[in-house]
């Protein structure tokens, strides 16, 4: 099987996606980014400098790449790119390029953490959350410690733990469009899952996150849990997804209940551990977009741990299109 995949943008997550797709040497990988130092540009078979998604020339450039490279699949690697590409999925599809993204209404509920809470909190356990700015209400409803973060965001940017009133009064003025959440102490679990275009759950890998750095898991271990798989299936029965997505949960040490923290309707940065364990979610998502059958995951039979380190890429700008 052959096919051409366009990965957008080409930052840190793109490097993980590209490594996963390299498991099938017949695939040709193109990447695009605004920054010539984006590492994915230089790991792909060809890299393109593209305008910002806010630039009116963005779509013309993507159209040109699709035509020139005969792109079959567009793989979004950013929560900023996902809704933009989803809104133009039909247009790209007419050109022969399938966008690996959920429907706009699904993205809207998942990318806004308050909408996620409103939609799912009566279906699955979640930390108590509020967007009210009245300090007295927050203290009474959430209490301390608490977490404050932007309603729309990724990683650990502008995420802070609130220990007391002084923290609350300070950060509620600093964090843009914030949501306040109950702080949950316990083990962190991430889920990499694959869903077909009909919204049917296909499979999932579960991982225990052991250490984080700047919002990125740097130490983790594959750790199967039936309760997490059941939660993943439950999410798919209530909202229609498509492709690869990641879900973050915490096993609350107070009541031993699994709490849903957030749903990322895209591949997660630690998916490479799932790939190494036999769950190549990104590659299987591309196969779904290409209309190819999915083989059962070849699952490792032993505990598989992951630790991360920095790696450098050296390049000359002249090699880009």
Topology:
Layout: E1 3-8, H1 12-21, E2 27-33, H2 40-43, E3 46-49, H3 58-69, E4 73-76, H4 81-87, H5 89-94, E5 98-99, H6 104-111, H7 113-120, E6 129-130, H8 135-141, E7 146-150, E8 160-162, H9 165-174, E9 178-182, E10 186-195, E11 201-213, E12 216-222, H10 226-238, E13 243-252, E14 258-264, H11 271-276, H12 281-289, E15 305-307
Parallel strand pairs: 1-2, 1-4, 2-3, 4-5
Antiparallel strand pairs: 6-9, 7-8, 7-9, 10-11, 10-13, 11-12, 12-15, 13-14
Helix pairs in contact: 6-7
Summary tags:
12 helices, D-amino Acid Aminotransferase, Chain A, domain 1, six-stranded antiparallel β-sheet, Rossmann fold, alpha/beta, about 325 residues, 15 strands, globular, five-stranded parallel β-sheet, 3 domains, Dna Ligase, domain 1
Can you give a write-up of this model?
This protein has 321 residues and is α/β, with parallel strands linked by helices. The chain has 3 domains: 3-100, Rossmann fold (3-Layer(aba) Sandwich); 128-182, ATP-grasp fold, A domain (Dna Ligase, domain 1); 185-307, ATP-grasp fold, B domain (D-amino Acid Aminotransferase, Chain A, domain 1, 2-Layer Sandwich). The protein has 12 helices and 15 strands. It has helices at residues 12-21, 40-43, 58-69, 81-87, 89-94, 104-111, 113-120, 135-141, 165-174, 226-238, 271-276, 281-289; strands spanning 3-8, 27-33, 46-49, 73-76, 98-99, 129-130, 146-150, 160-162, 178-182, 186-195, 201-213, 216-222, 243-252, 258-264, 305-307. The strands form 3 sheets. Strands 14-13-10-11-12-15 form a 6-stranded antiparallel beta sheet. The chain has a 5-stranded parallel beta sheet with strand order 3-2-1-4-5, with helices on both faces. A 4-stranded antiparallel beta sheet has the order 6-9-7-8, sandwiched between helices. Strand 10 and strand 11 form a beta hairpin. Helix 6 (104-111) packs across helix 7 (113-120). It is globular and about 60 Å long. The chain starts with a strand and ends in a 14-residue tail after the last strand. The mean pLDDT is 93.
